[in-house]
Design goal:
Shape: extended
Helix content: 25-40%
Order of helices and strands: HHHHHHHH
Distance between the termini: 33 Å
Oligomer: single chain
Strand content: under 5%
Number of helices: 8
Radius of gyration: 23 Å
Largest sheet: none
Structural class: mainly alpha
Length: 202
């Protein structure tokens, strides 16, 4: 975008965004909140809510409603509740909380020749899981993501904290361990980041 090219040269961005005018308007709005006469800010400024849910903060796809529905659906193995969760998430498109909600699909006039379409086998190689640490989810979830990615030719990311050595050691027959994460994340001084761990990365 023009803003990035002029003021943040070299920064990667794949979408258009705001410009100087919008940044100025936002700065003025923040100043008015801090020094204006709004009753809600008389004693302290709003903590915001860009990253964590706040009552008066920005809207998020993950909020008390969606999280509660997902937890109840999973714990009770309830398809109906999962359907309610899915509907809440899908409706975020209409609330402009996702990039896809800002897009309007334009259908092609004619079908694309199938030989011009990349094969599924090639597309899935670029799939990757988020860098969720082993400690933040569970051994079962973490290793299952690795197995799934290895099966489709994608790449799982260990996240901070490393990966148990047993998962990247080859199997008895010499084949690759299906629980091995291809991407090894490095966080300085974190447990699990060893030379052995590093050499077992793709």
């Amino acid at each position: 975008t023009k803003l990035v090219d002029e003021y943040f040269k070299g920064t990667a961005t794949s979408i258009e965004g705001i410009g100087i005018k919008e940044l100025a308007e936002e700065s003025v709005r923040w100043h008015e909140d801090a020094f204006g006469d709004k009753q809600v800010y008389k004693k302290h400024l709003d903590v915001g809510g860009d990253y964590a849910y706040r009552i008066r903060g920005e809207s998020h796809v993950w909020n008390p409603n969606t999280i509660a529905k997902l937890q109840h659906a999973v714990r009770a193995n309830n398809a109906k509740t999962f359907g309610e969760f899915s509907q809440l998430v899908d409706e975020q498109n209409e609330n402009l909380l996702t990039l896809r909600g800002l897009m309007e699909l334009k259908l092609a006039d004619k079908a694309l020749p199938i030989d011009e379409v990349e094969s599924v086998a090639e597309i899935v190689k670029r799939f990757s899981t988020g860098a969720m640490s082993f400690g933040s989810i569970s051994y079962e979830a973490h290793s299952t993501l690795a197995v799934a990615m290895n099966q489709i030719g994608g790449k799982s990311n260990t996240g901070e904290g490393g990966e148990e050595a047993s998962r990247f050691m080859p199997l008895a027959d010499g084949s690759m361990n299906p629980e091995r994460s291809a991407i090894k994340q490095i966080a300085s001084g974190r447990f699990g980041v060893t030379a052995e761990y590093l050499v077992n990365a793709d």
